[in-house]
Amino acid sequence: MAQHEHVRVAVIGSGFGGLGAAVRLRREGITDFLVLERAASVGGTWRDNSYPGCACDVPSHLYSFSFAPNPDWPRTFSGQEHIRAYLERVADTFGLRPHIRLGHEVTLMRWDTDQLHWVIDSANGTTVTADVVVSATGPLSDPKMPDIPGLAGFTGKVFHSARWDHGYDLSGKRVAVIGTGASAIQIVPEIQPQARRLTLFQRTPPWVMPRMDRAISGAEKWLHRTLPFTGTARRGLLWGIRELQVGAFTRHPDQLGLVEKIAKANMARAVKDPQLRAKLTPSYRIGCKRILLSNAYYPALAEPNVDVVASGLAEVRGSTLVASDGTETEADVIILGTGFHVTDMPIADRVVGAEGITLAESWKDGMEALRGASAAGFPNWMTIIGPNTGLGNSSMILMIESQLNYMADYLRQLDALGGRAALGARRSAVGAWNRRVQDRMRRTVWNTGGCTSWYLDSSGRNTTVWPGTTAEFRRATRTVDLSEYEVIRPPGQGSSDRAARGGAGATGQDAFAEGSAR
């Protein structure tokens, strides 16, 4: 690669969002693009998270691109290795390899107001300029390390679940697992048989539902390969069921009581000790935090070599772990299942917009982006899986594909403007969108369920989850509404007033308004 290279579009990251963007660009006839990836291979979070038991909690046929169905999924809920292999196949099948630059960690993206392009510096010393940046780094890419006094002085081994040390043998060790999120409940059953003693530090118990997982039969695979519409129908059924569930999360959280009973029954089958059951029973409405799926988590916790400390880790003294309730535990290894930087994504510190401030500074009072994609003050910059695009019950691939529709129309609108031009989201449009989102958020279980979750930022605002159906989001992002953008021309050429006249994208706003009224 040349030391300096200019492309029309630079995509940052090669997970589902980045590879999806690359495929969509090629399908739109755009080949002048690069995918900048910091690691040595593609895969995003499904490359980084390789801990024992790592698997998806969304059914396989729904957790895949609609344009790249996989009739050969081995299980109804796929493991990490199968999802990563799927992404590698997507990169090969759609001819993306020539566009991908591995080992290119972006250290800085700066908007050049004179040239109307982005200047992108990488850690390896290369610089790329791009008319448009599509940031697809994802919210589950940078592990969150807890600030625990004495942790740096721990005498044993410490690693995060997303940076698993496969060379470290847990056999016969005293293992401490910190956290009870989606990663921890998959890790614990896998490592419990190896550990001499396993101590789980639980700040808040999760709701855990049965995992309806099974091997997909050869006959099913044959049917989906031979008659592809059957795979499409299966995907449609899985999608429809989850769309029908959205109302309980977003408008009627009181309807989730029956689901809580199912989760409690799941616990009661495996945990006979009433004291342990009391520790593991949440005091908040199910759905407020992410609902987890496992058939093995509760049985593992009931094993004689496992202790559950119903308190967070407060301090480390040498090899002694001290919980907030004063409980002391000796450990040889600490595994941190402490999540990721979701509402304070590190990439935001590396993006400098038209006003000379970083995206992190712009978002100091909370993340917000027009239709989850465009931030005010950052022209020709879009994010995939941006603010308020997360889901609590369905597949993020559906949201990603909706945002790819928006990206494609964004590029079409730039082409239609002609000449050198950029689109900058109007602050008024970003604010109006965010107010509508937050207004709908007030009734949701994520805001009213009585818990503190990673969906909320430091001020307690939910800047993570989408408060509607995936179909609503698809309608709201089908096309770009030019009235929500300012057209930017090079200095001295003035600005077009076309954006003020509106455009074909009004449907998206109307769809959102209709959803708000329901």
TrEMBL record:
The keyword Oxidoreductase applies. GO terms for molecular function: flavin adenine dinucleotide binding; N,N-dimethylaniline monooxygenase activity; NADP binding. Residues 488-518 are annotated as: Disordered. Its cofactor is FAD. InterPro entries: FAD-bind_Monooxygenase_sf (IPR051209), FAD/NAD-bd_sf (IPR036188), Flavin_mOase-like (IPR020946). Gene3D superfamilies: FAD/NAD(P)-binding domain (3.50.50.60). It holds the Pfam family FMO-like. Keywords: FAD, Flavoprotein, Monooxygenase, NADP, Oxidoreductase. Catalyzes a Baeyer-Villiger oxidation reaction, i.e. the insertion of an oxygen atom into a carbon-carbon bond adjacent to a carbonyl, which converts ketones to esters or lactones using NADPH and/or NADH as an electron donor. Thus, can convert bicyclo[3.2.0]hept-2-en-6-one into the oxidative lactone products 2-oxabicyclo[3.3.0]oct-6-en-3-one and 3-oxabicyclo[3.3.0]oct-6-en-2-one. Is also able to catalyze the sulfoxidation of methyl phenyl sulfide (thioanisole). Belongs to the FAD-binding monooxygenase family. PANTHER family: FAD_NAD(P)-BINDING DOMAIN-CONTAINING PROTEIN-RELATED, L-ORNITHINE N(5)-MONOOXYGENASE-RELATED. This is Baeyer-Villiger monooxygenase.
